[in-house]
Photolyase/cryptochrome alpha/beta domain-containing protein (Lithocarpus litseifolius), 709 residues
Amino acid sequence: MPTLLSLTTSTFPHFPSLSFLPNTRELISSPTPRLARLSLRAKIAETDKGEPGNGAASSSSSILWFKHDLRVDDHPGLIAAASNSQSLLPLYVFDHRILSRFSDEMQEMVLFAVEDLRKSLKELGLDLMIRFGSAENVIQELVKEVKATNVYTEEEVEYDVRVIMDVVRETLETVYSKERSARLVLWQTPFYDIKTLKDLPASHDDFQKLQFSITSPAPPPTLPSAKLELDWGPLPTFDVLKEFMNKNGCNPQKGWNLIKEMSAESILQKKLRKPDKSNQNDLSVRRTPRKRVDKSAFVTQKGNIVGGGTSTVLNALAAYLRYLEGTARDDWQEVHEQVRNAETRDGASFTALFGPALCLGIISRRRVHYEAITYEKDRNAGFLSPFGYSAVTIGAAADAVRSMEWYWLMCLKSLASYDGRYSIQIWRWKGHLIQYTVFGHEGPAILLVHGFGAFLEHYRDNIYGIAEGGNRVWALTILGFGKSEKPNTVYTEVMWAELLRDFIVEVVGEPVHLVGNSIGGYIVAIAACFWHALIKSIVLINSAGNVIPGYSFVPFTKERQTSGASWLGARLLLFFLRLRLKDIMKSYYPTKPERVDDWLVNEMLRASYDPGVPVVLESIFSFNLSIPLNFLLEGIEEKVLIIQGMKDPISDSKSKLAMLKEHCAGVAIKELDAGHCPHDELPEDVNSMICEWVASVQSKLPAESLSQI
């Protein structure tokens, strides 16, 4: 168990650093805009009772633009804006570009959270302005109307949201108030007491050794008393919101929309269902509507995630932490029932239940940590045990928010320290942060998928090489690896295939040529089998998976069980890998072992210390690779290229190719004098093969209008 970082004793030790968003925008139409930025920090003087600091411009009006911070509790931006403004305009914009990133259930949650935010602000003497449209247009008009000099908004890491913020900044530069243009002022919630990102080590192991203190949450401030006579706008119903989204082009063409709605399991069962069978075995189980209890935190129609306002979520958190105590309260019993349903492995229920509320900022990460640690102290006479937490739920909550903060900081540092090699961008999938890059301005879309334990940079000499062949190349680090988030969940090959599906739909926006190495190849094959419309062709590089002649059924189970054996096995495996990593990797590169350089080894070692890695490794013991490759490739053989390193130490390449030739007639096969990772061992050869293959497939396609999302 990692050493528990100590809490600061002050209620709120210092105001957050604020930064004025500088000019970072390249052409938005470019697929590789850089969002690295210089940071100009403006310290806001700390004063008592929310009074403006001596050096702050206290005579101006300000706008506080809410996005993913839908609360007044522990809101540093609200504190800073209130301290430096005579009048303050809180604003929420229903911007279709921001909301289109959310599922219907998350959009429901937004409505409940915005309703509660307005209520909370009214209790503090203000109101919440609600507007529909593009954020830059709405904010521009309001800045003119109230003569605002500052627009406060939370720092973001997601690429799409950062682009919108950049457009807002450029728009503000054209609006002058008091002889200067209005400024976009960024704020963050300082979970750890870190003064600058330069203090953030690359390794989580090194980070823990520094033992940064964790800051305490802040109560709502005293807000400016000056009233603004404005039209504050009505809160929409869900139907009105959906109508708005549809009118603004956020209703993807029907085929793509259905693709995202169908799980991999339901598609597989449909493929396996015999013609004479009824629908009684459909995975879409009809559930009896659950009776809602008073003060329920499960506010959406599906009713399986915590939502509502801040007080509702805090109440659900209190119930979650006290799971072992039992309760006679109906609302807490409901939470406990949902904990049992969501506990797919020890502690996984926290992220499953509270992740969406944290993603929308209904509650802050450090508020969760504060509540968990306070309860732990209450259970232990004011002390924290060095041997771990006294309840699984306490550890799950505290560990989850610390892990989320680490990956958020890593993403922020990646964006702020562009080194000229890759322009890192961030995509959020089901609330989790995923790193990716893109290069190339024209040509077919190609998506590169790495193998187990690797990351997007494992294609370090392929991304540019393939793009220079006249292609647009995306590479991502899938959930659980590299610098992408590693939440406490059960990792499966099917889950990763669904991640690829959503990335293609939401980020790439058109059908792609999919390239995968090792387990990445198997995931690619699953995606191609289940969602044909998204795939132009696939390239499998020393892919995992087997060919099973004459299979009569496909053994597949949705449920994956973890055990004490897998827990122990993962940790022993991790110890062994750290000890022998360089030797193991060199065995995978038999032709050019020098390609296993210090950078590759050090980056793999760095990632091995990230929070959540043991959980990812546990998945090795529950992988289900029993769906045969010949089943997955059936019907798409003409769209498949196999690139096989013939010296692969973990498979019999000759036998595998012989089976593929016999049972997957039509697939193209290329052999290389390489090991398990030919793309990195012989990058020029693989780049040439992929470029030639893509050009060949493209030449056979009918004249097409690419399906844009």
User: Anything to note?
Assistant: The two ends are 44 Å apart (CA to CA). Residues 392-416 form the longest helix (25 residues). Residues 201 and 207 are 6 Å apart (CA to CA). The first strand starts at residue 18 and ends at 20.
